[in-house]
Amino acid sequence: MVKTSLPLVLLTRPRAAAERFAAMLWAERPDLEIMISPIMEIVYLKPKVLPQAEVLIFSSVHGVKGYIAAGGAPARAYCVGVATGECAHTAGFDVLQIAPDLERLKPVLGQEERSLLQVRGVHATADLVAEFGHVKSVIVYDQPSIGLSAAAKGALASSRSVVVPLFSPRSVRAFAAEALRLDGLYAAYISEAAKAAWELPSIAAETAETPDAQGMVVATLKLIDKV
After folding, report:
1. Going from the N-terminus, what domains does the chain have, and what CATH number goes with each?
2. Which stretches make up the Tetrapyrrole biosynthesis uroporphyrinogen III synthase domain (predicted)?
């Protein structure tokens, strides 16, 4: 059976990240219609004190940019995610390792003898200070919720199928609060933790095999083919 129409892909990440992900999807499927409606925005913060450490830990591009905006100088760094590593390298940081997710970086951090600084946002999936005695942390950005656009709400209220890739437990909860229907709504989750945060369990879903952008591209395309 040949499909006569494709679902709309709704991206709710902050705009720069959403545009990068849209480009990855279009590289695989140029025929996709993609709508970008950030459900959160990035606000950089300047801490009163920027703690000193021998090695930094970045888990997002926003952490790298926020650290620089706060007056931090390039140093050695562990990074989570290819985009984070590339951003840090471009900014002059000595990237020691790029891990696909924080869980796979933790064994390395546990063996690290140098002082470490977790550069994070207000909302973080892991508090490394609580897990490791030699880790300090600093908050350099926030992601306040701003809600979906009128166009996105209109798309969700229509009869057209909508595929929504969701990249964190917090973004899942924020989107769930605004989801107007279940019929015709499909979600691609970056992880089982993100999927567990969804409060509408009857939704059709696909979970990424790897918790990164490429894994989400694969999961999103699989879901589109199932709609």
Report:
1. 8-41+146-226 (3.40.50.10090), 43-142 (3.40.50.10090)
2. 32-217
